[in-house]
Amino acid sequence: MQGTPKNPLYIRLQTGFTQWLRILNFEPTSQRDMPKMLDEFLAYLELQNCLHPHDIQSDHLKNYFEYLDQRPNQKWGGGLSKNYIRKQLQVIRKFSRYLTESGQESFTVKMRIKGKSSNIKCILTQAEISRLYAAVKDDTLGLRDKAILALYYGCGLRKNEGASINVRDILLDKELVYVRKGKGYKERYVPLAGIGIADLQNYILYARPLLAGDKKDEALLLSVTGTRLSGHTAYERLQKLKKTAGIKKPAGLHTLRHSIASHLLHSGMKLEQIQRFLGHSSMESTQIYTHLKHEQV
Predict the structure, then answer these.
(1) Is 254 a known active-site residue?
(2) Catalytic: 289?
(3) In the annotation, is 60 catalytic?
(4) pTM for this structure?
(5) For the segment 229-254, what is each residue's pLDDT rounded down to a tens digit?
(6) 126-292 — its CATH code?
(7) Catalytic residue among 94, 208, 254, 258
(8) Which of 86, 237, 257, 258 is catalytic?
(9) Is 183 one of the catalytic residues?
(10) SS3 165
(11) Is 263 among the residues known to form the active site?
């Protein structure tokens, strides 16, 4: 029963929810996928003659997730994955939060999805991370590659967070990185440690001035034209390092974030500290890393 709602109120709320995700700087994939998932929920409510958010009861949610358990996967066949169903619950919670924060009548979500799941396809082992570093060349772009690794692995930043970092956000004297454009526009400070401090310092002192030329861009990571480096270009640099390092796993910038979180957990860091490090708003997002203990790190 996938579809879109026809109720004018639900159509308006879905549009508002989409704008809210954009304003709060959610990841582009979330801005794309969450409204579609909300559509399915709202269309289901219409069929149940539930036409206003304040009418949503626990039974509506319970029955909706029973429906999802039975609904076939339209793209791949078979049933829906636990990850997809858990994501649906996250979308419904965020919709409830959007209604509350925008001063509209909302509803309460008390449901939990039982069972372990993770949307993390893979992590890189510590040995593979070492191979990435060993693959870096000793030149201007190589110094920038180490800065990229320092941000996305050493600091565990999201793709957009790393791309948005400015030079003034690197507080070398305090061994901190100031993340001003985090998810939901939440600011945080991330600790800099060990090799990351030296790599960022070397990049700022020796490589960045060469990339900047006579440009005055405030961005930390610069392209060869002296303008802010895009997340896509940073991803392409990682793919080149991966190829040189002989790493066959599919891995992007977010893989580096997953990897450092898993490595910190295995080193003994508490989940609460990892939650703050990653900038997760809820412990539920951080707990996925406890399910990765079978990974070789």
Answers:
(1) yes
(2) yes
(3) no
(4) 0.64
(5) 998 999 999 999 999 999 998 899 98
(6) 1.10.443.10
(7) 254
(8) 257
(9) yes
(10) coil
(11) no
